[in-house]
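new request in #modeling-help
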Amino acid sequence: MQSAQASTEEPLYSIGAVERDTGLTKDTLRVWERRYGFPTPVRDANGERVYSREQVAKLRTLKRLLDRGHRPGRIIGRSLAELVALADAAPAAAPEPVLAEAPARILALLREHRVAELREELGQSLMRQGLAGFVTETVAPLNRAVGDAWMRGQIEVFEEHLYTETMQGVLRGAIASIPQHGRPPRVLLTTLPNEQHHLGLLMAQAMFTLEGATAISLGTQTPIFDIVLAAASHRADVVALSFSSAYPTVQVADGLEELRAKLPRAVELWAGGTNAGLRRRDLTGVRICDTLEAIAPALAEWRAAAAAA
Amino acid sequence: MQSAQASTEEPLYSIGAVERDTGLTKDTLRVWERRYGFPTPVRDANGERVYSREQVAKLRTLKRLLDRGHRPGRIIGRSLAELVALADAAPAAAPEPVLAEAPARILALLREHRVAELREELGQSLMRQGLAGFVTETVAPLNRAVGDAWMRGQIEVFEEHLYTETMQGVLRGAIASIPQHGRPPRVLLTTLPNEQHHLGLLMAQAMFTLEGATAISLGTQTPIFDIVLAAASHRADVVALSFSSAYPTVQVADGLEELRAKLPRAVELWAGGTNAGLRRRDLTGVRICDTLEAIAPALAEWRAAAAAA
DNA sequence: CGAGGCATTTTGTCCTGGGCAAATCTCAAT
DNA sequence: ATTGAGATTTGCCCAGGACAAAATGCCTCG
């Protein structure tokens, strides 16, 4: 049943479809309409919102800009063309970062969708540098570079997904190939809820495992209550959390404090990652590992203390 | 500031958390409360719903029964024990009363937190059965078993995390060891936003790769628009999506329809997973792979068609 | 007794318009 | 420069009503 002028056949979207498509919740879509006068969906016979293709496109672009730190009130009035221009513009005065040779080559492969070569190149870097060198000198700069490129709009979402997925495969493969001795300390690795970034966790796991510690990873997003349970069940000596820069800065300290309070005294709490919140408040009872290189000395310290006791 | 009896401190869930955990939308949760008197969340200082662990467990079980065709009004009044009995009773064609020997042993290891042995046992099953057999006869039943145990509250969240993480390592290792020939079809694998389950995707990737296809995984949660972009960039012949039972049933058909409309005709769209929504509406232009075993014949068909053209 | 068509119930999604806390911004003061 | 208080922005949640699609029950007719 097409209407008489269905020839133009504009695809129309219900509010649920727009939610799926843009990642903006129904609540947000309604509240924007009320507050900012955009979007302006027409209504169907039943009074329900019907969004046009253009508006969905603009909403999608808006969502991307929000993810990069823009605020809706500031940009929602602009035209789609302006928004696209904004997305392309480099944010503020961030100079094009200079990359070492290998990371630059790898980034180029990612941009050109050469999956097999990308994986190959990563594998070669790994063999050349060893896992520790690979993690600190290739993976960490690459993560930065991919993140930067994403902020600049130079990289599509799916390219970033592909990067994460590929790197995850390489890192996991490397970690699995390290012989496990079951030596102390027993380190429980995870992230708090809403922290989805998996690569930081894997890098840390690699460093811990390389140093001969017994690393047990729960993956991302473990509720605090369950971290405490897990630490007890696995008789963990150390609980290590990773915080990416995408994680809300304020929640870092709160989460660590709460976890610290609920963990037994004897269990140490270590935190690391690129999040700025790790360097703010002084967190008593939490060891901050600013860089991946800080993991080895921290482990050495722990072992010295354990030997003394 | 802990309350006097903070030691018991049950974890509490907001309505948004319950939505994520159970796959029941906020609207549904509120309307059930209004109509059936269940769930009965307490309210926090701000008047917002706070759900207990037990109620979330019951809601999860209810969701599972709904997926099997039960209706909420008929079963919502029963106790969790009754619901579990109902879930166990006659799941039609698949009684599966006794877990095969290996999966049972593996589940026991998980419950006892013997990580090293768990990984070892999984590795041995893999070697014994080969990857295809491992995926269909060990991983798939194990996923079920873990899901069931979780639904009944027999397994902690962190145990489920550990299972997922460990299995992910094993599967990725196995996939990486398959030689890649770059043969067609080129298959792009991912899930839609809000679908976080990674194991289904990895199992599918294993099957595709085993059959000699070129599988490119974007990991989970790729927006529809970006799937379309990725399919073009990677010149995909097939886009394959995975839907776990936690994904809102109704959105399955909608999401697939929308993606189908935006993908070029020449690109096939395949979908699989445990979600009940895959068996509901007739989805034109989408190939449903009910089981992992269905992937091989589907590939064979595609190749036959490609050869004919 | 079975099949098909129609009425009724069930169920999930969408609606409006309001409220609140957390995040962010602004700007003065140290 | 940094900090801190106040103002603003923003997303999520609430209540309770309405409606359409799906499922079920009922009734008639062959």
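bot summary: Chain A touches chain B at residues 11, 16-17, 20-23, 60, 113, 115-116, 156-158, 161-162, 164-165, 168-169, 172-173, 175-176, 180, 182, 190, 216-219, 222-223, 225-227, 229-230, 233-234, 261-262 (CB under 8 Å).
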